[in-house]
Amino acid sequence: MAGAPERPLSPHLQVWRWHVTMASSIFHRATGVALYVGALIAAGWAVALASGPLSYNAYMNFLGNPLGKLVMFGLTVSIFFHLANGVRHLIWDAGKGFDLKLADATAVAAFVFSIVAAVFIWVIGYMTGAL
Amino acid sequence: MSGFQTDHSRARGLGAAKHGASHWIGERVGAIALAPLSLWAVYAGIGLGRADYGTAVAWVGNPLNAVLLFLLLVTSFWHMHAGMRVIVEDYIHKTFSKVALLVLNLFVCVLAGGLGVFALLKVAFSGGAF
């Protein structure tokens, strides 16, 4: 804008000490974007199913190849992380849980829960032949 | 002058967003609904991972599955539109780019949501592609 004064920029990512609550905040956005793509994949599944067996089988083969499975595993982690961290956000919205040590602990818990739950789901899936 | 206006009516619409907290509240209500729905989605995904065409069609034909999948799709697209909107508003500051991306976000969510829901209802009511 012409004539607008030069204003100082706020400090950016590289000048902050890396911290678990910062990581959980960034991951919340990242997993949200991943789940945006995941919802498009789910809608695509419904469209493929409605289009008949040929398109359904093609779509499932596309999701079932190793790269597709990697994407689906990433989406599983994303669902669990976004869910757990979303609960943290709802608790903060209620005005609770801001104590620093508690905020750190719940951030670590969200990360651990998302990894453990996703691995658990996929191990169960492989053992029962469902995935 | 505005001497007869209440403080509230003077303040209304003056914020950067030009409206109240409805967007913020709507995102949270969607989030609360998605907490159980997303867990159900994982459960459903396990069941459908290796489902052949006939199994998947029969699964969608079950009213409970059809309704929960309908709610999952609608609530997901509602919530992800709200979330992506905030991301665009946070990072994109040029007016044209911002408005273009906000409109694109809305159109993608409505189009994909509409396609997903229509396809789901078609399978649920007709029992497949025919």
Would you write up a description of this structure?
- The complex is a heterodimer of chains A (131) and B (130).
- In chain A, helix 1 (20-50) packs across helix 3 (66-93).
- Chain A has 131 residues and is mainly alpha-helical.
- Chain A has one domain (20-127): Up-down Bundle (3 helical TM bundles of succinate and fumarate reductases), CATH 1.20.1300.10.
- Chain A has helices at 20-50, 53-64, 66-93, 100-127.
- Chain A has 4 helices and no strands.
- With 130 residues, chain B is mainly α.
- Chain B has one domain (29-126): 3 helical TM bundles of succinate and fumarate reductases (Up-down Bundle).
- Chain B contains 5 helices and no strands.
- The longest helix of chain B is centred in the C-terminal third of the chain and has 32 residues, at 95-126.
- Chain B is elongated.
- Classes of the chains: A mainly alpha (131), B mainly alpha (130).
- At the A-B interface, helix 1, helix 2, helix 3 and helix 4 of A face helix 2, helix 3, helix 4 and helix 5 of B.
Describe the structure using short key phrases.
heterodimer; A: 131 residues; mainly alpha; 3 helical TM bundles of succinate and fumarate reductases; 0% strand; extended; B: 130 residues; 5 helices; 78% helix; elongated
Short structural description:
The complex is a heterodimer of chains A (131) and B (130). Chain A is an all-alpha fold and 131 residues long. Helix content of chain A is 76%, strand content 0%.
Topology:
The complex is a heterodimer of chains A (131) and B (130).
Chain A: H1 20-50, H2 53-64, H3 66-93, H4 100-127
Chain B: H1 7-11, H2 22-48, H3 53-61, H4 63-91, H5 95-126
